[in-house]
Design goal:
This protein has one domain. It is about 55% helix and about 15% strand.
Length: about 150
């Protein structure tokens, strides 16, 4: 099994100097609030639900909570590595990544998926603003700074 440092993985989510995977930040916020309170905070819950609905039209909150509980009980299940492209773009596993960042896990298992391509339109700051997040960008940007600091990105 190959492992990658989360800092390196997060740096791989930049393109032309701009961070392009704000879904990681929103998932991290949800996990943080869930761990801190054991419940869904209205703001974070709505933010995560809004992301899920804009992306798939399904609210996956219940399955995300089950994943968080599984991490609490069993830790990271290495049978499910992150899927990334050869240029470190995350194609699968941002829920697990959000949990790992919150838990302070520094390295995470991954596999390179040759079919995985960098998606330019989803989860960028522009995408968020045009999909109902405009009034929440201040909180998201604050969380981005916190998350970057936590993984060692300055």
């Amino acid at each position: 099994m190959k492992y990658i440092h989360i800092k390196d993985l997060m740096i791989g989510q930049f393109e032309k100097g701009k961070f392009g995977k704000y879904d990681i930040i929103i998932r991290y916020l949800f996990v943080k609030k869930y761990y801190n309170t054991g419940q869904k905070d209205n703001f974070k819950y709505n933010l995560y639900s809004l992301l899920a609905m804009a992306n798939t039209t399904k609210d996956r909150t219940k399955s995300f909570i089950l994943l968080i509980k599984s991490f609490n009980e069993y830790g990271y299940d290495e049978k499910y590595p992150l899927m990334i492209s050869d240029d470190l773009y995350i194609c699968g596993g941002t829920h697990r990544l959000g949990i790992c960042i919150h838990m302070g896990i520094s390295e995470i298992p991954y596999v390179i998926n040759n079919l995985c391509k960098r998606k330019k339109r989803r989860f960028t700051k522009t995408w968020l603003k045009t999909n109902g997040f405009r009034g929440r960008m201040s909180r998201i940007n604050k969380a981005k700074k916190e998350l970057f600091s936590k993984v060692g990105i300055r």
